[in-house]
Amino acid sequence: MRAVGIILAGGNSHKMRELTQRRAIAAMPVAGSYRAIDFALSNMSNSHIQKVAVLTQYNARSLNEHLNSSKWWDFGRKQGGLYVFTPTITADNGYWYRGTADAIYQNLDFLRRCHEPYVIITSGDAVYKMDYNKILEYHIEKKADVTVVCKRLDDNEDASRFGTLKLDETMRIEDFEEKPMLATSNMISTGIYVIRRRLLIDLIEHCAEEERHDFVTDILIRYKNLKRMYGYEIKDYWSNISTVAAYYRTNMDFLDPKVRNYFFKEHPEIYSKVSDLPPAKYNPGAVVKNSLVASGSIVNGTVENSILFKKTFVGNNCVIKNSIILNDVYLGDNTYIENCIVESRDTIRAKTRHVGENGVKVIVEKNERYAL
Amino acid sequence: MRKKEMIAMLLAGGQGSRLGVLTAKVAKPAVAFGGKYRIIDFPLSNCINSGIDTVGVLTQYQPLRLNTHIGIGIPWDLDRNFGGVTILPPYEKSDNSEWYTGTANAIYQNLDYMETFHPEYVLILSGDHIYKMDYEVMLDYHKENQADVTIAAMPVPKEEASRFGIVVTDREGKISEFQEKPPEPKSNLASMGIYIFSWKVLKEALIALEHVPGCDFGKHIIPYCHDRGQRLFAYEYNGYWKDVGTLGSYWEANMELIDIIPEFNLYEEYWKIYTNSGILPPQYISGQAVVDRSIVGNGTEIYGEVHNSVIGSGVTIGNGTVVRDSIIMKDVTIGDGCVIDKSIIAENCEIGTNVTFGIGSSVPNKMKPAIYSFGLVTVGENSVVPAGVQVGKNTAISGVTVREDYPNGVLESGETLIKAGGRV
User: Fold this and answer.
1) What is the mean pLDDT of residues A11-16?
2) Cβ A294–B266 below 8 Å, yes or no?
3) Cβ contact A221:A212 at 8 Å
4) pLDDT in tens, A178-209
5) CA pair distance B385, B419, nearest whole angstrom
6) How far is A19 from chain B (nearest CA, A)?
7) How far apart are the first and last CA of chain B?
8) Cα–Cα dist B22/B305, whole Å
9) Which one of B260, B266, B286 has the shortest CB-CB distance to A278?
10) How distant is the alpha carbon of residue A303 from its chain centre?
11) In this complex, is the C-beta atom of A326 within 8 Å of any C-beta atom belonging to chain B?
């Protein structure tokens, strides 16, 4: 194989509000049955990349639980495998990961001991499908030092939470700004990069010597005029989930048959950890319209334009509209939920009402569960 | 010496011919059940939940689906360094070669396999029943009684007892008599085909009866042990246990899962049933769809109406289609505007638009009245049914059918339509 993979899954974002108190963004449940990192991991596996490192540090319990076996993504081979690297104290380092470049630096031995000539770096918080071999071909063809996968946002979307790029007609990167106050380009970096392994090691070592720690600002932006950096535009679906609004919209996108077919039916498939739940059950009184329902759920009430994640229990006469109910939530009888995201393992008391008035409301309840 | 206290031998070689076209190309243990499972998932899950991590699965009839389903046993945590699941088909030997001629003969041919684990006890199971049982409790009972053989048995209604192997016991559960399908049963305790043998006893009996043609546990081994005065005990079981040997009982057992609190509850936390299900995505219920009193598998898309049915994974049910009282297995596509009443549609079938299943009166099936009854329409796997046709009750369809196969567009009640080919 020609490349090893690195998935940057360390992050947390205050823009996710209450949702990342319990887990890293990469471990967020997505599309009913998956976790965000499943997309990056499945892409790696489907691109025949056999050696993948996941770098994580923020509240990794949930992520570690999800990655407790690598067999669901078809890693776990004698050749290669899945490595989860959290910061450790060593003889010459006592820090947490101080940035993405530092995270790679602290695990540089992993890269040094590989023999594959290239490295694919991606983030763990985006929903997309990609054959990394195609970018690798492109990278070689362009004789690039770094290839940055980029995406043109629609005009109504806010580019200022991303890195923005300006490309010339040969797709060479002319300008690169990280989270600009005012975005002057709607071409954004997806955080997916291809780079030669030896070059990455050199750049990371150099960066560390200068006490710099961020891959984007301290490597990509600093070296943009010195190295040959190219953009590769992804035309297919790509969505980053790291704000509450984006997370909500990305999930709701799966109600669109085009998006659903692209991820659920077209080859190659997205893998995830199997949870051994029974089929979803619809009891008398269930009225479900335009919704996704994951396995293990039991529905007794009304569900419209919503996504029920695994093991949701919907009580009698409940009404759920335009909402996302995360894993293992129990909704008591006669509850009304509209425009909400209900945090996983919550128990919503009977006869309660939750409505997101201005945008999406995140519900985190810690009620005791007596039922069942 | 590495050893296992108890290993399980799971008999999964039978055809289950009373399931008609459902088992034309797969062994009965591999037939789908309950939306996402296969019948063999129940004994296999019982094994791992009971702490038995060494299971030999004896296959013979059409084993491909079973082999791919079981693989190396990952879904049941039966991928082990020592033990785990092993598929045991019949094999050629230096002096003779024979198929498995009977249940006990199949076990006899795998003495070497069992010997590898130096077991103290061997659990014999069959792969065609739906139940949850803790075999460890049964083993405790076996040890407590210092039994040589323990037979799991359950009370059945007196009038049905003559269909089963019946055990007659004393007050302590010790078996005094064994009757195979007796015209006048002396008790109502029916053998469930689940046995725990002390290894030495089993080995001795298998070798002693090695030349008995079609050597069978119920007919030969158990009577042999009994005649030699060994200690046989009945382990009474009072939970849910269902033999899904006929289309009627198979259909009923599936329908029972839909009840609000089903007697056989798949939603319990502490005794999970595991399966190898490749399909992960959630199901989609469209804006026009109506779904109630049903269970539905992963990745299924419902655009029509589904009432009182068991729907597998990866199924598509078209706009305006109404499915009622039916079992639809994995990867079936049903077109728009169909009416599907009381049908069993096996895996990967394609039903065209405006097809109606289950019309007319309940005329007995002309070819196999004993199999295709209960008023069901049964469609074998990979079949294709063309648009616009109507199908009566007690019918069976298999293969790629075209409109010309249906006189005036109708397959009358009681007819059977078997064609070649299959949907890829």
Assistant:
1) 80
2) no
3) no
4) 999 988 899 999 999 999 999 999 999 999 99
5) 11
6) 21
7) 49
8) 25
9) B266
10) 26
11) no
